[in-house]
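Journal club side-thread
Mid-discussion, someone asked how the predicted structure for our own chain would compare to the paper's figures. Pasting it here so we can look after the session.
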Amino acid sequence: MLNSSPSNHRVAYFISPHGFGHAARAAAVMSAMHEIAPSVQFEIHTEVPQWFFQNSLSGPFNYHSLLTDIGLVQKDSLHEDIQSTLESLDRFFPFERSLVTKLAETLNKMKCEMVICDISPMGIAVAKEASIPSVLIENFTWDWIYEGYANENSRLYRHINYLQKMFELADYHIQAEPVCHYCNADSVVNPISRKCKTSTKLLREKLKIPECVKVVMITMGGIPGEYSFLKQLMEYQPDIYFVIPDGSRDIRIYSNIILLPHRSDFFHPDLINASDMVIGKLGYSTLAEVYYAGIPFGYVIRPNFRESEILAGFVKKNMKGFSLTKGEFQNGSWLYLLSDFLTLPRLERNETNGATQAAGFLCELFRAEG
């Protein structure tokens, strides 16, 4: 167990700003570490907005706005822009030596004892420079993702080779299910998800949702979008409510439709747990939260994104649900599939959350390294 002294353990966390999935997974791990050792102080480095971590974490952290990763430049929530991605990668890699040195000096001044990366390779480079142990947490790495586009974009191979060498420098390696490409990791953990904060009963009361109705949540993974099927939802069964985060600039209620702003007081895992089904983009954090809620998932696949096939296979094997194309999602044809899935009982999940498993591994490292 970690020493309870608040000045004893400081951890730098480098997080990819690609969407919110990596930040959600990182927040889940940080929260689990705080449960074991409340005194751990996190130094979060990312361009994911600070409010996201304020909503997700109850323990101490400092926020440092820093571009730690490129990932993929997106045209929208389902489609990537490879040409713009290549231009950004060419500017970002290899890392500027002066930046890595400056960050390493800063971490040493802050007396950080560990650097955790999800899945930012910059953190690994900085940790090496600072002579601090680094831990990579992932269900894929960017070199693996870029390989899926490399045949048509040969310029990617330079970045793939660079990233492969960079990721191999991590001192410790945790893989989180669903794993896209297994390797000789130090630990493979269950899906990592943030835990709920508010009971279903209280959350439904706050949203003025009657107890007896079914609730379907519609989400595109934290990226605001336009929903062309809202009229169809209002004309659908009145005893089915639809909750849509990122559906409006403020809270709006139209009959059985509840639109929430991108940033609201309603915690995403709570919304999912209070729902009877989720319809939306197939991404890691949404999958993990739906998985632990034990409810069906109607998922929209990103057509060219290599991870999607792995996530879809996990849903088919371990969850209830169905796949949707972007067109099927937008035209609302999935509405007529709801009745059968909304009658299904919740699946009971008795296994330990991967966040708890990862946190236990990380806290033991303090002993080993200490």
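Post-session note: The mean pLDDT is 92.
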